[in-house]
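Hi Y.,

Following your request, here is the sequence exactly as I used it, all 149 residues.
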Amino acid sequence: MTSAEDIRALVEQALAGQEVDLIDVELKGRPGRQVVRVFVDVDGGITLARCAELSQKISDLLDRKDPIPTSYTLEVSSPGLDRPLRSERDFQRNLERTLKIDYQEGESSRTLVGVLKQVGPGNIVIDCKGELRTLELKDVRLAKVQPRW
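Below is the corresponding structure, written out as tokens. Let me know if you'd prefer a different format.
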């Protein structure tokens, strides 16, 4: 049985040299009706045309390697705004955006909303209404971009 990790290894191979960040690979559904979801991103956001181009490259490789013997659907998209930020790279891509962050401070859980100003090794700096706050990434429990309306 093919796992999402097996598919991820092939997707990484297909995306080598494409200057995109592979965010996640999901394999859902039952045999014959499986869906492979690939989430990619680039600085400034990925376009629909770029997703289509990458989908073709991934599809070509999956067709050649045939890791899923039954039919499946391939979806390639951006991770979306509601996806939690997990890595330093995720935070770097979202500089100057407003984030809502749940974090741990000692024994307490706290939440703040502010503009991401800086990402350093292991920490981030948030502007909370003119006050700069530095948070260690290890203390961040959940961080999401807040869309502008």
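The radius of gyration is 18 Å.

Thanks again,
Q.
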